[in-house]
Write a structure and sequence with these properties.
245 residues, alpha/beta, Ribosomal Protein L25, Chain P, 7-stranded parallel beta sheet, 5-stranded mixed beta sheet, 7 helices, 12 strands, 24% strand
Length: 245
């Protein structure tokens, strides 16, 4: 079932069930009352990543307090996406964009990976989680991706579950079209690995190519920035062997 894009959607931490009211957080009060200037009796959509999506009404017992009351479930909670997104962190502004687009494209796990040429860093997982929740609010996604702590590429590969195939964007691939490669993949447990702006080192590329659970793919004839490559790769994977089928 597709999301209702005409109504305001909010992620909340509270449990959602019919008729059980709870007080809005300070941030949600400010946004609904002061930014959107919503009034008593108006409605929003709420989700928490666990209980589905709910139509809820607003009530203001005082000028400085707001309560939200779930009335009816509008969409049931879906199973979380099983697509893992492994990425070398970028500089802050572009990292925010990268995380938001990965969530929009159906990533279920966000795993920062530290490579030799990485240019960004992850100093606060809360920022990644906030970007993931904002993207979910805007795009009708109910299952919030899990955000993992950064790991070195070599360590991640050393204990990787062999039943989950890693697809990595290889700028040194001999062809230009990723579709024939992707259509040959039989596994349904998948992960996408996108490297840093400077690309993978020769040693990292050799390591990845030596592993039987890793598949390199090209991304066309043009050189793509890392954040562009991420969106392009996620789109082609979802279209060829993912949840767009």
């Amino acid at each position: 079932m597709r999301a209702n894009y005409r109504m305001q959607r909010l992620f909340v931490g509270d449990a959602l069930s019919a008729g059980v009211s709870f007080e809005a957080s300070k941030d949600h009060f400010h946004y609904l009352a002061n930014v959107l200037r919503m009034e008593d009796g108006e409605a929003v959509l709420l989700f928490n990543g666990r209980d589905g999506e709910w139509h809820a009404t607003l009530s203001f017992p005082t000028r400085k307090r707001l309560f939200l009351t779930p009335v009816a479930e509008t969409r049931p909670q879906p199973a979380p996406s099983d697509l893992h997104y492994l990425f070398a962190p970028l500089k802050v502004g572009r990292l925010d964009y990268l995380v938001q687009k990965a969530v929009e494209m159906g990533a279920g796990v966000l795993q920062p990976v530290m490579t030799r040429h990485v240019q960004g860093k992850i100093s606060n997982l809360d920022r990644l989680e906030a970007n993931a929740m904002e993207a979910a609010e805007q795009c009708g996604i109910l299952a919030i991706p899990r955000v993992e702590a950064p790991r070195k590429l070599e360590d991640l590969l050393a204990d990787w579950p062999r039943e989950r195939r890693i697809i990595f964007c290889d700028e040194g691939h001999g062809s230009q079209n990723p579709l024939p490669v992707l259509q040959g993949i039989k596994e349904r447990k998948l992960a996408l690995l996108v490297g840093p702006e400077g690309g993978f080192s020769d040693e990292e590329r050799a390591l990845l190519r030596s592993l039987d659970f890793v598949t390199p793919i090209p991304l066309g004839p043009r050189i793509l920035r890392a954040d562009t490559a991420a969106v392009a790769a996620l789109a082609v994977i979802q279209a060829a062997i993912g949840d767009w089928e």
